[in-house]
Design goal:
It is built from ten helices and 15 strands. The chain has two domains: 213 residues, Alpha-Beta Complex (DHBP synthase), CATH 3.90.870.10; 92 residues, Threonylcarbamoyl-AMP synthase, C-terminal domain (Rossmann fold, 3-Layer(aba) Sandwich), CATH 3.40.50.11030. Helix 1 crosses helix 5. The two termini are 31 Å apart. It is globular. By secondary structure, it is α/β, with parallel strands linked by helices. The strands form two sheets. An eleven-stranded mixed sheet has the order 1-8-2-3-7-4-6-5-9-10-11, with helices on both faces. A four-stranded parallel sheet has the order 12-15-13-14.
């Protein structure tokens, strides 16, 4: 069932479900989450079961404010504190050393844990009412396209799941994830925050994940970092605009069951081809990306041709999600 997130009674009802060990769909500025009490391994097991997600794939714990960090983290390095001060509430997850005996299931059995304070009024009201950290991966079946509306969540899990409706997500792709468990910060998953913004905030260089190859030890497992992820039912292919146009010209009026998402103006001879114009702005593209992929699925597309995003840093988050969608 979908309840209005602006209704205080709905917030209390949702929090009561969390406290009873049940699951709740809730909005954030990035995507909708599937929440459970992070302190209850049994409740967290319900997330893994509902999503079909491997239990060793860690979840992000959502907090009402930074004061709750000490409930889950055994230490906070200064650069992590600076990142949280700069971007919380907001689309940033920090991975910190986990306190012994706390949220082991949510952490996927690791000795580290991902924490985030979302920048959404409904999410913050919900988290305050829960009075506990809420483990919350995206509210979709594992590996599929993340939901950015309450209706998307209901499509995934049906009417039995309570979903707080907070409107369409303003950011549209998942948070940036920074590993803060070592001597230097490492960007494990890009989002709308650029590496330069993260470096300016924490006051030191932020390593890319592939730069860990030069370091001792690997990165902790993190949410949403599998090679194949965020995939619609249709097959996604990333192409240059010229390659898309050539393929459309070859198929001509016979093209069918194909969707195109591109910035360039293209000549499309078939009325059966679905077309959405990709914004020239990275933030606008991120906000609509998952909704566009879902709409192509809903309209029966079997192939989705997407113009390669620009190579500039502000497009890193979009480029990451599209690369994983195309790998499925």
């Amino acid at each position: 069932m979908i309840l209005s997130g602006t209704d205080p009674q709905a917030i209390l009802a949702a929090a009561a479900r969390i406290q009873a060990g049940e699951l709740v769909g809730f909005p954030t500025e990035t995507v909708y989450g599937l929440g459970a009490d992070a302190s209850s391994d049994a409740a967290v097991a319900g997330i893994f079961s509902a999503k079909g997600r491997p239990s060793d794939h860690p979840l992000i714990v959502h907090l009402a404010d930074a004061a709750q960090v000490s409930d889950y983290a055994s230490s906070v390095p200064p650069f992590a504190a600076r990142l949280m001060a700069a971007f919380w509430p907001g689309p940033l997850t920090v991975i910190l050393p986990r306190r012994d005996g706390v949220a082991a299931a949510a952490a996927g059995g690791q000795n580290s844990i991902g924490l985030r304070c979302p920048d959404h009024p409904v999410a913050l009201a919900f988290l305050k009412a829960c009075a506990t950290g809420v483990a919350g991966p995206s509210a979709n079946r594992f590996g599929r396209v993340s939901p950015t509306t309450a209706a998307h969540v209901a499509q995934e899990f049906g009417d039995d799941l309570m979903v707080l409706d907070g409107g369409p997500c303003e950011v549209g792709i998942e948070s940036s994830i920074v590993d803060c468990t070592r001597s230097r910060p490492v960007l494990l998953r890009p989002g709308v925050l650029t590496r330069a913004e993260l470096e300016a905030a924490c006051g030191e260089p932020v390593l890319a994940k592939d730069e860990l190859l030069q370091e001792a030890g690997g990165a902790p497992r993190a949410s949403g970092t599998l090679e194949a992820h965020y995939a619609p039912n249709a097959k996604v292919r990333l192409m240059d605009a010229g390659a898309i146009q050539t393929a459309l010209d070859l198929l001509g009026a016979d093209a069918a069951h194909i969707a195109v998402y591109a910035r360039d103006v293209l000549r499309i001879k078939s009325e059966k081809v679905l077309f959405r114009r990709m914004p020239g702005d990275a933030l606008a593209t991120a906000q609509q990306l998952f909704a566009v992929l879902r709409s192509f699925d809903d309209q029966g597309a079997r192939l989705i041709w997407i113009e390669n995003p620009p190579a500039s840093p502000e497009w890193d988050g979009v480029r990451d999600r599209l690369g994983r969608a195309a790998a499925s």
